[in-house]
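In response to reviewer comment 3 from the previous cycle, which asked for concrete evidence that the modeling workflow produces usable outputs, we include below a single protein chain processed end to end. The sequence was submitted unchanged, and the resulting structure tokens are shown without manual editing.
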Amino acid sequence: MNRFTTSVLALALALGTGAATTPARANVMTFTGAPTGFFSGSYTEDGITLSVLSGFMFGQSSGGNPGEYIQGTNYLGAPLRLTLADGGLFDISSIDLRIFGGTSDQTQTFTGHRADGSTVTATLSAPGNYAWVTDTFPSSWTNLTEVDWNFNFPTFDNIVVDPVPEPASLALLASGLVGFGLFRRRKHKAA
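The workflow returned the following structure tokens.
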């Protein structure tokens, strides 16, 4: 094999390896452009879909952290579901919470459903001083298909999720390596 061919194959291998190991960027649902007032169904932004499974959500156009946010639902306990719009797996990092009414601290329990059928739960809190707080989910919140919660008191904004890279990029790298190996083997036999 000549130097030019070796150099091209080495460059292709380096680029393929870099593409396979580059982390995906985080997606953030900031509710920019969300409907204001009561709305039913779902809202999708930056590849994330938030659905109200029964009832209505209530969007606010100002006062978020910053800008728009979801203030609540038409009744306490309305079920909400977070998914990726493309149905892919994701890890959830954080959510901003604030008390909708009252001065005492409030909590919100979230349930994450994993691809393997297991579930994880976390109870996050918001202080009773009307200030926004960023709550972080535990590191075990990975490979999720959906996150459910029944809306209680905290309003929410800035939901941060990280899409899980698809195995297809690793398969592409592996097939390139196999092809490179076969190419080298054929060249070696021909010589």
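The two ends are 9 Å apart (CA to CA). We consider this sufficient to address the reviewer's concern, and the full set will be provided in the supplementary archive.
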